[in-house]
Amino acid sequence: METKEFTCIRCPLGCNVVASLEDGKIISITGNTCPRGAEYVTNELTDPKRIVTTLVKVTGGENPVVSVKTASDIPKGKIFECLDALKSVNLKAPVRIGDVVLKNVCDCGVDIVATSNVR
Amino acid sequence: MDKDLVIIGGGPAGLAAAIAAKEAGINDLLILERDNKLGGILNQCIHNGFGLHTFKEELTGPEYAARFEDKALALEIPYKLETMVVDISAKGEDKLVTYMNRAEGLVVIRAKAVILCMGCRERSRGALNIPGYRPAGIYTAGTAQRYVNIEGRMPGKEVVILGSGDIGLIMARRMTFEGAKVKLVAELMPYSGGLKRNIAQCLNDFDIPLLLSHTVVDIKGKERVEAVVIAEVDEHSKPIPGTEQEVKCDTLLLSCGLIPENELSNALGVSINRVTGGPNVNESLETNIKGVFACGNVLHVHDLVDYVSEEATQAGKKAAEYLTGAEREHESENNSGCRSEKNTDNAVSIKATDGVRYIVPSVIRLNHMDDRQIVRFRVGAVYKKVAIQVLAGDKEIMNLKKQALAPGEMEQVILQKSVLSGIDDLKEITIRVKTD
């Protein structure tokens, strides 16, 4: 039997979660305080995902950039591809929280949305 | 100008305090904010992880701020932007708040109550005494965060970060996302000062090394940073000769701790706690000056904004109680011409010992206490498999098992009024780390 340790990133508690594996299959998950910890570790072992937060250029507004995020988590391996895709986006002010900035980024099925207002 | 309540600062603490006071019936209030928008430091914290506690969803900083800003606007809470408070002084029961801005010049407000919500500042290079020249390219992590996230400018391309506070960890990922190479994070202590999850998602995800028990002993370069010299330190935090290594970089970010910003509080005569750098407060988050309350990072530095909002809501409510209670007392004085006899406060002091560095609040007056009182504290070292023990006098009233405790993670216990008031002649409560 093999064990792997993780720091859960789903909330600031940062639980130390231990997964026990046999032939690559998860047989137990311990140390998590909530179901999200088990979900996180299962994902980490199979298909790690992250929410990406970054900036997109804006013209004609109070600031030259606006903060954005992936509306839900995307595969960890696609983070830099996602960031590259956002480099060519140039918005026009005003931008409102929740505005869709880019649809279906990198074919992940996830939209990029604005997280601040630029007047 | 006269006001019932003036709130100094329009960040997360100021907004939550104002909302709570307004909802408790205080209409004659005003927020004074020095920046050009409300929301404070949250505006530049574009990463996610805010609001899980408050809204049960994961928001970014600007989104979290907008929730509170929208509520403050809906409640029609008045505020002034680009307005700097330069002095607060006490005059009898009143407080004189002096502010200035471009439109009005210098103005004095006579306030019945004040809530201090000024937040904190970063420890600068000057406070760290790092030797070397003073080239361009040295920033506190929060300054770099503002340049990148608000102004859209990159401070540099090859980065070394000194200190593993949360802002430094977050900036390691942010600079990486913007195309910079973050070479390493050096931390003086044998443990990180930031949240574990930030080490996982900001450093480990991008293979950025974290060197514990290391510090910067020299900065090279005259016009611009060209390299920094890193060395290992011993258990007394002294660099060990022979361990120096030169790391080429053009930027050094400092994430070496936050200091509550209490210049105004000091001038007012507020008593300051030497450990937290913030005011000493009672259960109502009231300072030694009657009618002056404090909450958020000006009181003690928090890890989570959710707890700032919770604490500030408490301060807003208690300030409202002070105002309505004080007014009632005043009325009865005028009517009967005599002061009603005051009952004693039954003050219990809260003491930190055995590994607990500080506790907020430091005094609980039992007759002013709510049914539950949140008490927050930090430990001074890393502990594994220990307990947090709460003693009322010599009697143990709580024993909470903890897998791990670390200075970078704030802890809390909730004291019940029913338990405390059942103990005869209670004078002191002690919170300690029980290691055996």
Describe the protein's architecture and organization:
The complex is a heterodimer of chains A (about 120) and B (about 425). Chain A has about 120 residues and is α+β, with helices and mostly antiparallel strands. Chain A has two domains: about 1-45; about 55-115, Roll (CPE0013-like fold). Chain A is built from two helices and ten strands; from the N terminus they run E-E-E-H-E-E-E-E-H-E-E-E. Chain A has helices spanning about 35-45, 80-85; strands at about 1-5, 15-20, 25-30, 50, 55-60, 65-70, 75, 90, 100, 110-115. Chain A has a five-stranded mixed beta sheet with strand order 8-5-6-10-9. A three-stranded antiparallel beta sheet of chain A has the order 1-2-3, with helices on one face. In chain A, strand 2 (about 15-20) and strand 3 form a beta hairpin. The longest helix of chain A is centred in the middle third of the chain and has 12 residues, at about 35-45. Chain B has about 425 residues and is an alpha/beta fold. Chain B folds into three domains: about 1-120 and about 260-340, FAD/NAD(P)-binding domain; about 125-255, FAD/NAD(P)-binding domain; about 350-435, no CATH class. Chain B has helices at about 10-25, 60-75, 125-130, 140-150, 165-175, 195-205, 265-270, 305-335, 415-420; strands at about 1-10, 30, 50, 60, 80, 85-90, 95-100, 105-115, 120, 140, 160, 180-185, 210, 215-220, 225-230, 245-250, 250-255, 260, 290-295, 345-350, 355-360, 365, 370-380, 385-390, 395-405, 410-415, 430-435. In chain B, strands 1, 2, 5, 6, 7, 8 and 19 form a seven-stranded mixed beta sheet that branches. Chain B has a five-stranded parallel beta sheet with strand order 10-17-11-12-13. In chain B, a hairpin with a 3-residue loop joins strand 7 and strand 8 (about 105-115). Chains A and B meet through strand 5 and strand 6 of A and strand 4, helix 2 and helix 6 of B.
